[in-house]
Amino acid sequence: MRRKGFIFWLLVAAGLLGAFWYRLDWPLVEESLRRMHVALVLLAIVPILMTYLTRALRWRVFLAAVGSPTLGNTLAATVIGFSTIFALGRIGEATRPLVLSLRERIRPSATFATILIERICDMITVAAAFAVSLFFIS
Questions:
Q1: pLDDT tens by residue, 15-68
Q2: Total number of domains constituting the chain
């Protein structure tokens, strides 16, 4: 049963990719690639990768109470999770804890709890930054 589900989703993904590929304006893609500044693209990739690494390290701190996942698995789950958010929207937020719980021996409920704690800490940080900025508004 599991194999049939995998094959089904693989065919769905291939169909969507084929439809996308067919509708792509290839002359426009070629022109855009020729006009692209490769050095700037590579320079932009560095902070993105550092952001993923920082998020993975921060998540490992939150996960320390429930387990000790490797940095590689945490980083992989982070990259997969944020890539899924890009492709599917906010529903992809659930991917990150699910991927990590599949790669490590950590309960999915525990990984979801750390995501909730992470969001609460993010809200506190934003509120604190807002409060500090109020002192500088004239």
A1: 999 999 999 999 999 999 999 999 999 999 999 999 999 999 999 999 998 989
A2: 2
Alpha-carbon torsion (4, 95, 77, 11), positive or negative: positive
Q: What is the pLDDT of residues 37-46, one digit of tens each?
A: 999 999 999 9
Residues 6+ apart with CB under 8 A from 86: 92
Q: Which domain holds residue 31?
A: 1-36
Same domain, 60 and 80: yes
Helix, strand, coil abundance in the chain, percent, nearest 5: 85, 0, 15
Q: How far is CA 4 from the centre of its chain?
A: 27
Q: Give the contacts of 20 (CB within 8 A, at least 6 positions apart).
A: none
pTM score > 0.90 for this model?
no
Has residue 112 got a pLDDT over 90?
yes
Q: Is 89 left (phi over 0), alpha (psi -120 to 50) or beta?
A: left
Residues 59 and 79 in one domain: yes
Are residue 32 and residue 52 in the same domain, yes or no? no
